[in-house]
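On clarity, I found the account of how folds are encoded harder to follow than it need be. For illustration, here is how one protein appears when written out as sequence plus structure tokens:

:::
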Amino acid sequence: MRVIPAIDLLDGRAVRLREGKKDEVTVYREHPAELVAELAAGGAERIHVVDLDGAFAGARRHADVIARVCAASPVPVQVGGGIRDAATARAVLDAGAAAVVLGTAAVKSPAMVRALCEALPGRVIVAVDAKDGMVAVEGWVETSDVSAIELGRQAAAWGAAGLLYTDVARDGTGVGPNVAATAALAAGVSIDVIASGGVATLDHLRALARAGLPAVVVGRALYDKRFTLLEAIAAAREVG
């Protein structure tokens, strides 16, 4: 299982939120691009970047910061948050991102996301952000009437490169990932599912690895120094 460290952007800084709530924020670095070299040196093979301001506003807000992060990174960077149209998705890719992560757009503009998946094979990841099994949109402040498994199957049919599954209630809490729900989604679709949300211990990583998940995004636990990236990678690889 691959461990993908996360960099979340808010007001130009690297932060983490609790349960996706903007008023429950912890700032980890004033200059996010500085994190890239540290993460790559720590063993990262890929980095996950989220424009939180963009997710809340519905339009990207950190174009310059993301471009600097991509330019500074020796490993591929996947970017999400506020990408609601094809032009923005292509602009993010042109700025150096290896892949874009689309969540709200996949629910509200499915034809556009399908067209992007077809035009850009391997470069579009669909975010499945769930609250009680239903997909949350608009920076997780709204809950749609689309179920996680329904969106996952649609994305697979479109040719998405993978799914990023997050149990919103667990994100940033450290209570542990929703292994059962993540594994159930993975079993129900034909593309890779990346786990996200709630990881706080090496045992959490081992549980996801035992469930057969191919990758996991980790944020707060790394920045709170609950374990190092090298320790996380070792734990993720020791199972199976």
